Amino acid sequence: MYCVREITEDLYWVGGNDRRLELFENIHPIPKGVSYNSYLLLDKKTVLFDTVDWSICRQFLDNIKGVLGDRPLDYMVINHMEPDHAACIEEVILRYPDVKIICTDKAFMFMNQFGFHVGDRVIEVKEGDTMSFGKHEVVFVSAPMVHWPEVMVTYDTTNGVLFSADAFGTFGALDGKLFNDEMDFDRDWLDEARRYYTNIVGKYGPHVQSLLKKASDLDIKMICPLHGPVWRTDLEYFIDKYDKWSRYEPEEKGVMIVYASMYGNTEAASEDLARRLVEKGMTNVVMYDVSNTHVSYLISETFKYSHIVLAGVTYNLNIYPPMLNYLMDMKSLNLQKRTVAIIENGSWAPQSGKLMRELLDEMKEMTILDEEMSISSAITEEDADSMDDLADSIIDSMK
Ligand code: FEO
User: Fold this and answer.
1) Domain that holds residue 303
2) Which of 10, 182, 337, 352 has its CA at 20 to 30 Å from residue 48's CA atom?
3) Is the CB of 227 inside a 6 Å radius of any atom of ligand 1?
């Protein structure tokens, strides 16, 4: 049985949802599931925009059949070759052997690398090429590294629909809803959208900026991404989020305290700092235990807040492993432009402060506050003044 949504009078969502997968890319938890979006245009020619993940292939094929009926499938536009969207290319070819594939030269290269047998049906396109399917004319816009090098987006000049590949995607299954105006996105989806963007595409901010610049020249009426809702209202809201994230600008002035604590003493120091910050008027404070928070959530929150406090024990004369993992992820995702305060703890040879500072120094435009706390095992009344000075220093840096 097919399960589709009508987007316009001749465009259909033919994707599906996966609520069984625990780890997206086998690394990021997705407790709310994920959607794999694919779109089918019924013009003089019929055109499928991307396929879906293997996990929902059968539903996807039923959906295509349900919308096409007895019509053939003429074209398949492959904007992105990552297997969560491209896995079903050969299955589509098996059922519609006359289909032509439209993609970039790099996407064709990836098809061969992944071992797909697509024969001679590929039509290679590049930046600015156009194609008419009848009433609808599209232009292809290259979007390298958003999120792989072969990526393009496709803009329908007839109705202003942008098929945006991974850009403007989110984690989360769709639960029957498809359009952004059918949900409270800011309340229910934004956190997962940020976690998706920052962990999947976050490293490539300049490339996203380049795509946003190209997109600003287009009269976009609707955004059809490969994950999450279709945007048909309030596009500026989400474009603004993408603009901020890809410039590595924080969304909020606030303090995120990330602590690594073995027996609760570094946690207690973090609690003490949080209390002081709030009492001094900075109420936008959040705390995370690095040991029980998946790093994808930490990264997402780090993109959100302006100020970060790293409170970490010394472990084997090094940074505590989960904290090190978080810092390495920050670095590889190109995170920058944050103000950071450091609290170190060590019972006999504290090292974590120096080592965390060294790692932060390797990132771009990080401001590390001079005021540092070094704790010997646990804070005492004697640390009160130092902790107060650290809180003052953070608040001063927010002015
Ligand atoms: Fe959703 Fe880069 O694939």
Assistant:
1) 252-397
2) 182
3) yes
